[in-house]
Amino acid sequence: FGLSVRPQPRQRLQYRHLRDDPFVLLCRKDDPLATRASAPWSVFATRACIVSAPNSSIRQITDAAFLRLRTPVRPVLEFPSVAACGAMVAAGLGIAALPVLALELANMAELAAVPLARPAVTRPIGLVTRVGRSLPPVARAFMDSLALDQAQ
């Protein structure tokens, strides 16, 4: 089993939803956006933005959010990892959208995370298992405890 985003329907995996991981705008602490309570997705159409690699689950979600905008978003760079994204934003190369749980992979010393709104966008996180495979009792118990922790 594993913890993952919701798999594609064509994959032979079962998915058990645990939580929604909200997206935030990542910017430098000295950026005017850093002091806002929230920011709209439309800000990406007016500022240099950095996006994840095309095969990333993050990119699929941000591309869908950008499509909802009436103004096109033209990314200036693609990042290969969340750590690289943080370094690029800290260097002043642009702003980015990341899910909250991914922020632990970036050095946040010079960065700020601002909730994104209009619309609120999340990425589903859950437990995945292979279809047709059974798990040992200890694995099932661990999975059940994760689900209980999320319900509380």
Would you give an account of this structure?
There is one protein chain. By secondary structure, this protein is α/β, with parallel strands linked by helices. The chain has 3 helices and 8 strands. Strands 1, 2, 3, 6, 7 and 8 form a 6-stranded mixed β-sheet that branches. The mean pLDDT is 91.
Brief descriptors of the model:
single chain, 152 residues, alpha/beta, six-stranded mixed sheet, two-stranded parallel ribbon, 3 helices
Rg, Å, rounded: 17 Å
Number of helices: 3
Q: What is the residue-mean pLDDT, rounded to a whole number?
A: 91
Which H/E pattern describes the elements?
A: EEEEHEHEEEH
Poorly predicted runs of 5 or more residues:
none
Principal-axes shape call: elongated
Kindly state the percentage of residues in helix: 10-25%
Write down how many β-strands occur, each being a DSSP E stretch of 2 or more residues. 8
Structural class: alpha/beta
Percent of residues in beta strands? 25-35%
Distance between the termini: 22 Å
Biggest beta sheet summary:
6 strands, mixed
